[in-house]
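lol ok so funny story. i was supposed to be doing the assay writeup but got distracted and ended up predicting the structure for this chain instead. priorities right. anyway since i did it might as well share w the group, maybe its usefull for someone
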Amino acid sequence: MSFLSFNRYFFKGLQRNFKIIRYGDVPEVYKTPLVVERYAFASPSIKGHLRSLKELAKHLLRSDLKTYEMPEALFIYCGGSANNEREFSFFSRLVLDELPVSEYSRKDNISFVNTKVVKKTRFEYTVSFYLFFLCLLYLFRIKLGPVSLKYLLTYAKVFLNVYASTRRHDMKVHALVVANDHTDFPVAASMVMQYQKIPVVYVQHAEVSDSFPPLDFSVSVLRNQKSLDIYRSIGKVSGDAFVVPRRQESQNLSKIFQKKSGKVPVAIYLSSVFSQDAVVRCVDALKTNANVLSIGIKPHPRASQEFLRSISDVTIHDSIPAFEHIAIVPNSSVVIELLEAGIPVFQYFELDDVGHDYYGFVREEIAPEVSLKDLYFPFWNSGFFNDQWLLKFAAYSPSVNDSWRVSLPTLISKMKSYIRTTS
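and the output, tada:
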């Protein structure tokens, strides 16, 4: 065990994890009531630090730990959300014809494998105490509070569990594939694999902002050129980065330019932290709009639907509706996916507390903004989507032309090299 290398990757993962919550100066969107209440004792005071250390010790220094039954596939995955799994399926199909790998399956995803609780070995006890010491050091590099303690605790536990699991199993993996670059499980798994010199492939699952950590994976498969530009503005891009569109044909874009006549269906797409009052105001305004045929709501996969189902005369959609409609979206990367599908998007930021234009789509003139008063009228006939818009949208949707295909053989060759060099 190389302590210098171990330290480097443990702290590197913490940096990635904590950048998104501004190192403890936590944005409101991450202050979930459950976490704030559970770890209310965590604060910058001496007492807050002591109680936080006690909490860390309770979890890290216990006599047992959870281990994962590591998959035996050449390429394994880490990420449990539906959006992550969608990217894993995309990636596996992308390389399926050229590499001796199977199409994505949950049996190859650490997030879904069997786990068991086992007694720690003497070595694992040593690692546990060492991680506790590293956490102690990091406590004084962040602003301590309920959310920051939760992030530190969860990351350290997952790092320990994954590290122990890789030592207990005969690892046959040639590469780890993740679709998230800043949450605990995939970040911890990535750091453990990098420590063990196993390549990590990042397949971007959503649009990014400048609050994200730097791009430093072995290979990154990004959704568009704009994402690569944002990552370059954040810091040095390490490893090889490829832009591969998820929707490889753009024939649906022509529908955006068509002027809508008569009544049209409208769907409201919500983030995971939507404002209930704002949703009601939005729905009420659309009900008053004589040009609206029907109203639907597409919740975020992590959002509770109980409240939404209590709203009358509204259809709840589990996925993007297949029929043509107008989309009202707050801060969400689904904007690009909808536009690529030929669905006109209008951003109404009052629907959540994330902030105004978090992804910059309005600033970059990719989608227009609407206000509450606009919702009473046929706002979709604004003439926003035109040839000039298409030129700007090309940075977000490589499928507008075929230039992205030039680098695809290099990506496949890189994946093949991982299998050759580790065989």
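Residues 3-248+404-422 form one domain. The two ends are 23 Å apart (CA to CA).
back to the writeup now i swear
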